[in-house]
Amino acid sequence: MVVIALGFVPAAAGLAPASAAASSGDVVATHAYLEANYAVLRTVVKGWPSDEAKVTALERKIRSECPSAGAGSPQNEEAQKLSTEVVGALWATVYEANASAIRRFVRAVGLLRWSNPAVTRSVRHYTRGLREMSALEVPHLCEDVRAWGATGFETAPARTDKFDRHVNAIEVKEPSQRLLAPYEQGSDHSLAARIAHLSMRFGELEFTRGQSDWNALLEALALNQ
Length: 225
Prior knowledge:
Helices cover 67% and strands 0% of the residues. By secondary structure, the chain is an all-alpha fold. The chain is elongated and about 65 Å long.
């Protein structure tokens, strides 16, 4: 089964060394990161209705241009590739809708560094994942399903394979709050709590809507999961 996850991978638990002293640079970098992360998450959650409208527009486009293009297709490994491409199309649509907010986040945290290299690596990894997701182009689902059909539904298009590999290689994973906690001071603790709340809220939204959006696109194309 393809896992529907349009948002952020839950942060893995990680601890900074207990002996690590929070330098002024660590404190400043942590505060800047938390502010930027709160801003991008708040924008994504607040803008969810707009994101959903774009997903609905994609579904309508498919129903207009190639309704049931995959009718009669089997449920096998090749079908899974097209199903995965549909997931990628949802990711691309949602992240593209939030590209401006992501660019602001990347500018704000791109040069931040911590005395603990693990924190710096984790923030870099998160930033890179967001940047790569926001750069995704929505694939040509109609063309690719038709191309698959032209082979008698035997071989998925090469560009579907390429797109799936690219998407599957991207990971959007927030740094663990426990990793950052040693460097939080004052209001940072409440800011981190608000970030955790927003992350949870986004998870709820993607759980309730992600699966239904995926099913709607598969139904429009007459594809199996």
